[in-house]
Amino acid sequence: MAEEKQNQEELNEQEELNETEAETAEAEGVAVEADDRTEENQLLDKQLKELQERLEEKENKLLRVQADFENYKRRARLDLEAAEKYRSQRIIGDLLPALDNFERALQVDPDNEQTKSLLQGMEMVHRQILEALKNEGVEQIPSVGEQFDPNLHQAVMQVEDEAYESNAVVEELQKGYKLKDRVIRPSMVKVNQ
Domains of the chain, with CATH numbers? Predict the structure, then answer.
């Protein structure tokens, strides 16, 4: 019986030792598992941060593309408005030399009734042409007596005339025209010094 008791105590000690080892192993396993979870959490946090950065980058890129598209739409609208506003510029530019020649022809002194009648018809046509140009927004640039403006006038000669101020336009050699706010052809002028 004493031997049995001793065997029983040894068994109990062995079980306690086994239980302690199991608890230690379990604690180490939990610690390893906790370390694994911490590493996994760190990895997930890192991935989350990278994804957030990529998302922010994509959002910024999208905003830039939207802004570029809005700018493109605005430029296209402005180009279309300008094209509509100045649609007749080319044909008006082509008509101006013919209009100059027409005005020179009107300056002829009639010597008989037939020439006077022809000039009256030409003057009516001239007024109609000017009216049509005016309806399109064409204006003659005022010159004589005005101060010289390099945006509106092209100085081809300088003279000294005390009747005019310094830098004033003395004579218009060729009429200048504007279409709305754009100069089609500057006036060729003589300018006082």
Answer: 87-192 (2.30.22.10)
